[in-house]
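Long-time lurker, first post. I've been practising inverse folding by hand and with some scripts of my own, and I keep getting stuck on stretches where the structure tokens seem ambiguous. Below is the full token string for one chain I'm working on. Before anyone asks, I'm not after the true native sequence, just a reasonable design that respects the backbone. If someone could post their per-position residues I'd love to compare against what I wrote down in my notebook.
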């Protein structure tokens, strides 16, 4: 009687193969979304650093010869793009918080 009861309990409490397959596909989707969110935040972070670094480099060239670099003022929005990028990266949720 004990073996039969154990088998019935196992069927009642263990997930079916369909549920296991569905769970694995959802875990796979979660891992892929976590990787995508990480790549998004990393590329936004490094592009923000690039925006600010290139402007600083251009400004240093402007200081050396201002008569030839009057167009530096057209590049001032790059500072705002870099700052907004950092703010967005800071506000993005971490993937471990979402999962």
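-- Answer (accepted) --
I ran through it position by position. Result:
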């Amino acid at each position: 009687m004990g073996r039969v009861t154990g088998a019935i309990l196992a069927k009642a409490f263990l997930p079916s193969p369909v549920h296991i397959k569905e769970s694995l596909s959802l875990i796979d989707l979660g891992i892929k979304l976590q990787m995508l969110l990480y790549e998004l935040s990393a590329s936004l972070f490094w592009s923000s650093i690039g925006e600010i670094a290139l402007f600083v480099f251009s400004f240093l060239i402007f200081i050396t010869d201002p008569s030839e670099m009057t167009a530096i003022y057209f590049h001032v929005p790059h500072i705002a793009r870099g700052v907004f990028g950092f703010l967005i990266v800071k506000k993005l949720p971490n993937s471990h918080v979402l999962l």
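A couple of notes from the structure itself: DSSP finds four helices and no strands in the chain. Helices lie at 2-13, 17-64, 77-91, 95-98. Happy to go over any region you disagree with.
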